[in-house]
């Protein structure tokens, strides 16, 4: 398992400049800020039900920043704000959660596909996209984010198998956060690790500490190199833990282990990377609060922009099903 | 009698039927420890144990497919699909096997499988949490379909489904899950499949609806000058043709209200029935007030999509003009 | 013009469209080396190579799901489902994504995906090789559906589907694959979606059919004393309402012929259309001659199940009695 | 890999009496005779399209005879005649292929589920049945037969995963005959062996020579012991080769390797076991021709019975969709 949940420092990643490291940090903070603000906005009734990703920021940022701009990202609802790492304005994502059509976007603008709500059904999309790019002789690859529960779906299986058979340049990133709503991964599979599934598809599998942004970055970068070299897909199991409710509508008290949650929160990924950067001397209080401020401001502006949007055109309910 | 919400009535039906028949087994995603995302299965795990209230892996086709095998082993599975839109992966099992296996054994073997799911819009949820896919189920041979509009029927129809030797799909309007409350008979309570309910008597026009649209039709009837009869279909398949024909025979006018997309929706079957068997009674066109042939919108627009009393009234005014 | 069978016409359309647009890619089970179990894709592998004529793994949801991604990468996938009944596993992708993705991008991105499959009975095949599931597809927002009744339309409708920026499902009546032959325009030949065809002109009654049922309706019309107009719907969605209303406006009587199970089948939509927009023209009940609400039978009984000219005539006699 | 395609003798199986061995042989001959006669009947227009299983008899008989009568068999169309090993009369199966309702049966009569036409969709049925029997405290287990191509379907994946998670007493027997119609297994998966898929489900996997009836028998018996002991499912990959067309309607000349087919036919499973029994001195010409004669007679009587059935009741087309 690349990365190390216990010991620090997490170790260096070859070729990463100090700027790169700070960029990773900015991404983590932006995602964390988006998530924490969203929970507040929800409690204020300013957005609808929201799927919290607190603690999954390293898994998301580490993977996306390891890719090229030409590469496409296929998120699940759990990675709803991942477009922010591709320049998508927060108001777009906030609008999605506000049930406003301004929450739709053109995937080509950011290289980010629409948020997939039905579990695992976007895996074949990422595979088809990657396969299609390869057929065109282009070097773009794709990454699909999905959860531990998603591995039980036929759509995951068929997509993964197509990926291997077509040697599609795709990265299947499974965020194993231990839970599918109230269902623990132990009731989802009897496999010792989800990464074991890679064997059955004849593709390489890697298991990483999803709380270690550098470990995720490295694993993803290696998978992307393989993909571009024509060596096909890689299955990455990023081990994280869901420290928050499944979504704002969910009350996990009935099933979650509070102590485990507490422990995991202590070791949460953003603070962990922050401490690392401070030890390296790359981050001080000033820069840290500046980065935090930028993120807060982005969200403040984002919710303001989302809330100042005119109500959607009622005519939309009869439009856009067809081009012609 | 107890005053219950619709979802409480569903839970009551499950408690009663599981107590009544130890072969009834409830299975689905998060139905156990969490008691279901809408709490429809709350308390079943503690009361009946993990063998009879099963948290399954996240795989709808696997849920319905294994239910077929469980039925072969003598169980009466009640499968929960977490949301109607997540029942689509199980359409293959439903069409290929659930609706065909009894027939495939020359009628020798029964497959008493119940599939229940929340359905419809009005709850301000993200995409694919507010569809109304009943037409897919109704069109499938070997499948029965019922959609309650109130807590008492929710309990009674689910009980009928669980006791039925045939596969039954029960679609519960999620917008009605928590309100309004209604009086629900305690203990045994069965509403037979195939019987419509006259929700309101009237003489000038018949409003035909089911599920959440019944209240919309009733509201329209309320606001109407003329006298409207409101029929709550309840059981889409088998369908209570007599009730529909009797009412339209009396009123000579019909407006059908359906939340689902219009084309080839269930409302079309009702209109076709009237065009065949009530043609001489009809004094006006049969109008359908429906959702649009466009995906259910982002929820900020859902009230524009879901048929409203105003849209029903417009249609009623049109048919009354004849 | 060349004389071709329907399956040859399908192959011709694929050859022409793949030649015409290098983004067209054909994919499915056994479409490559074997040229498809019905030979619809024969010769494509040799002519266009393995990148554009792809033998896929045995997974229908995977085929349609990867097609969505291929479309995102700029391809125009033409997916073959080996038989209509094996398209059921892809309903989930079809409903959740294929029909919704253009809408989901606010209309920014197109998904020019064609799904073609053999459909219907009459070929004495084992179970689940003779279904008529068009209603599932027609009811799904964002999807267009066409069903040809002859070789020329089979080529033209498929060409229109492949060139369409919207997802289109083409269902090819397999009983017509190898006979009768018909004159098919060579090279470019497009039959626009949304236009019905008057297969036979008449004044007393309108017979409305599509696919393999058109010939049944024509035969009935042939044997009929009275003068029957036969309309070949061709494009179920979008539907040519004008053509239907014009004909029924003229004849005042309509009989709909559909092979699929009756309840909530596509014929109900046609009847509903007439009940809404032709009510004043109708001089008789709108009758549907359909398959039964029972799975398609073991093939020794298929002629009892599939609507026959005799059953159509019975219905016509009934409506003419008014 | 248990069993050995080359060397003979195939080695003994502990606990198998001479009677057991001859019973296996009878089963092989009955299936072979059924298959060869069916191809003839088809060419004579006496049955419809037929899915040939020539060369798969050892895989079918070895597995079924290793089970108890209480265990249920879930066949695909490729195992259409497997009911014969459970006392089903040939006319029933022949009627199925003749499109006559007399081809339907009550699964409880033989412990044989209906023939599954849609690929892999019966895998979850077998799993649910086995799980359900276990819940009842009964000792019955189930076996599902499916092909190499079936492993690409979501239904296989979801069923296999349920089997492991519910530790259902089920045997997943994959008949890897190298082809899915015209698609070679190399285009079906990138896994080195289909048995590798077992790892991803956390269940034991075994790879056997499907042409070696004793190897299949032994592997199945061990799997059944595990199942009854509460140790859950087993995935068995039986390696065979499709020496015949996919079905009578198929012309494999476009894709098949004729030489390989010839070689495989030389080593076909029935003759191989027959030679083994002869070497053991258990089988002589007289007994062999007696067994062959019994099988031929069974088929002759079967087709006669099927052909003498009255035409089906037309009323059936409106019946049996519902109990009520
Ligand atoms: C096909 C489908 N079935 C059910 C659901 C309802 N649902 C939403 S999230 C969820 C759990 C998903 O768990 P996992 O895959 O581990 O992802 P996570 O939520 O943990 O990120 C379920 C069952 C769905 N969205 N899609
Ligand atoms: C869901 C589904 N898709 C497609 C088909 C058509 N079909 C029938 S057999 C077959 C190939 C099956 O190959 P395999 O699983 O290896 O079994 P085998 O025929 O070799 O025994 C296909 C594609 C089907 N029956 N079901
Ligand atoms: Mg999870
Ligand atoms: Mg095979």
Structural write-up:
Chain A has 324 residues and is an alpha/beta fold. In chain A, 42% of the residues lie in helices and 10% in strands. In chain A, strands 1-2-3-7-6 form a five-stranded parallel beta sheet, with helices on both faces. In chain A, strands 4-5 form a two-stranded antiparallel ribbon. In chain A, strand 4 (179-180) and strand 5 form a beta hairpin. In chain B, helix 10 links the parallel strand 13 and strand 14. In chain B, helix 1 (6-20) packs parallel to helix 7 (151-163) and helix 3 (60-72) packs parallel to helix 4 (91-98). Chains in contact: A-B, A-C, A-D, B-C, B-D, C-D. Chains B and C meet through helix 4, helix 6 and helix 10 of B and helix 4, helix 6 and helix 10 of C. The complex binds thiamine diphosphate (2 copies) and magnesium ion (MG) (2 copies). One magnesium ion binds at residues 147-149, 177, 179-180 of chain A.
Order of helices and strands of chain A: HHEHHHEHEEEHEHEHHH
The percent range for strand residues of chain B is 15-25%
Strand arrangement, largest sheet of chain A?
1-2-3-7-6
Radius of gyration of chain A: 19 Å
- Roughly how many Å apart are the termini of chain B? 44 Å
**Secondary-structure element series of chain B:** EHEHEHEHHEHEHEEEEHEEHEHEHH
Summarize the structure.
The complex is a heterotetramer, with two copies of chain A (324 residues) and two copies of chain B (322 residues). Chain A is α/β, with parallel strands linked by helices.
Topology:
The complex is a heterotetramer, with two copies of chain A (324 residues) and two copies of chain B (322 residues).
Chain A: H1 18-43, H2 57-65, E1 72-74, H3 90-97, H4 107-110, H5 123-135, E2 142-147, H6 154-165, E3 170-176, E4 179-180, E5 183-184, H7 197-201, E6 205-209, H8 213-228, E7 234-239, H9 258-266, H10 269-280, H11 285-307
Parallel strand pairs in A: 1-2, 2-3, 3-7, 6-7
Antiparallel strand pairs in A: 4-5
Chain B: E1 2-4, H1 6-20, E2 24-28, H2 44-48, E3 53-55, H3 60-72, E4 76-80, H4 91-98, H5 101-104, E5 114-119, H6 134-138, E6 144-146, H7 151-163, E7 168-173, E8 182-184, E9 197-200, E10 205-209, H8 213-223, E11 228-232, E12 235-237, H9 241-251, E13 254-258, H10 266-277, E14 287-290, H11 302-305, H12 309-320
Helix pairs in contact in B: 1-7, 3-4, 8-12
Bound molecules: thiamine diphosphate (2 copies) and magnesium ion (2 copies).
One thiamine diphosphate sits between chains D (78, 117-119, 147-150, 175, 177, 179-181, 242, 246) and C (29, 58, 82, 86, 89).
């Amino acid at each position: 398992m690349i990365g190390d949940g216990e010991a620090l420092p997490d170790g260096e990643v070859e070729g990463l400049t100090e700027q790169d490291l700070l960029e990773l940090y900015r991404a983590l903070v932006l995602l964390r800020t988006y998530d924490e603000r969203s929970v507040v906005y929800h409690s204020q009734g300013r957005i609808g039900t929201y799927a919290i990703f607190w603690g999954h920021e390293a898994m998301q940022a580490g993977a996306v920043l390891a890719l090229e701009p030409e590469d496409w990202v296929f998120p699940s609802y759990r990675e709803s704000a991942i477009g922010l790492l591709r320049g998508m304005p927060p108001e777009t994502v906030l609008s999605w959660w506000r049930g406003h059509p301004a929450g739709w976007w053109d995937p080509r603008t950011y290289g980010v596909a629409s948020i997939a709500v039905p579990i695992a059904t976007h895996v074949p999309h990422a595979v088809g996209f990657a396969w299609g790019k390869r057929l065109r002789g282009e070097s773009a690859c794709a990454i699909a984010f999905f959860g531990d529960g998603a591995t039980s779906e036929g759509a995951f299986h068929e997509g993964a198998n197509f990926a291997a058979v077509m040697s599609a340049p795709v990265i299947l990133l499974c965020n194993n956060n231990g839970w599918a709503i109230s269902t623990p991964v132990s009731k989802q599979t009897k496999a010792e690790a989800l990464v074991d599934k890679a064997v059955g598809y004849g593709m390489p599998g890697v298991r990483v500490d999803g709380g270690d942004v550098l470990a995720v970055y490295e694993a993803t970068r290696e998978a992307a190199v393989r993909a571009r070299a024509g060596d096909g897909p890689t299955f990455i199991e990023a081990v994280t833990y869901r420290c928050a409710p499944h979504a704002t509508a969910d009350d996990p008290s009935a099933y979650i282990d509070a102590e485990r949650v507490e422990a995991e929160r202590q070791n949460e990924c953003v603070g962990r990377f922050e401490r690392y950067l401070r030890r390296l001397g790359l981050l001080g209080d000033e820069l840290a609060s500046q980065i935090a401020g930028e993120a807060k401001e982005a969200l403040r502006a984002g919710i303001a922009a989302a809330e100042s949007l005119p109500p959607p055109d009622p005519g939309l309910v009869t439009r856009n099903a067809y081009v012609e | 009698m107890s005053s219950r919400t619709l979802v409480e009535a569903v839970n009551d039906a499950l408690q009663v039927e599981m107590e009544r028949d130890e072969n009834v087994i409830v299975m689905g995603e998060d139905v156990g420890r969490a008691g279901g995302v809408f709490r429809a299965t709350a308390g079943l795990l503690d009361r009946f144990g993990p063998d009879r209230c099963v948290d399954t892996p996240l795989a709808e086709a696997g849920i319905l497919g294994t239910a077929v095998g469980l039925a072969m082993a003598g169980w009466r599975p009640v499968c929960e699909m977490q949301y109607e839109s997540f029942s689509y992966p199980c359409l293959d099992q439903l069409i290929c096997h659930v609706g065909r296996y009894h027939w495939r054994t020359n009628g020798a073997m029964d497959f008493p499988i119940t599939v229940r799911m929340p359905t419809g819009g009005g709850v301000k949820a993200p995409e694919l949490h507010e569809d109304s896919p009943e037409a897919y189920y109704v069109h499938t041979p070997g499948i029965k379909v019922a959609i309650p509009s109130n807590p008492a029927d929710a309990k009674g129809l689910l009980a009928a489904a669980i006791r039925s030797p045939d596969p039954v799909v029960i679609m519960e309007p999620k917008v009605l899950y928590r309100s309004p409350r209604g009086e629900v008979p305690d203990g045994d309570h069965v509403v037979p499949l195939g019987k419509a309910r006259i929700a309101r008597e009237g003489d000038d026009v018949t409003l035909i609806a089911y599920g959440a649209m019944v209240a919309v039709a009733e509201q329209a009837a309320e606001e109407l000058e003329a006298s409207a009869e409101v029929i709550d279909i309840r059981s889409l398949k088998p369908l209570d043709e007599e009730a529909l024909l009797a009412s339209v025979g009396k009123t000579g006018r019909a407006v059908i209200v359906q939340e689902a997309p219009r084309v080839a929706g269930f409302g079309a079957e009702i209109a076709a029935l009237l065009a065949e068997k009530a043609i001489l009674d009809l004094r006006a066109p049969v109008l359908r007030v429906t959702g649009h042939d466009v995906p259910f919108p982002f929820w900020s627009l859902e009230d524009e999509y879901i048929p409203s009393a105003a849209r029903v009234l417009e249609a009623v005014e049109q048919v009354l003009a004849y």
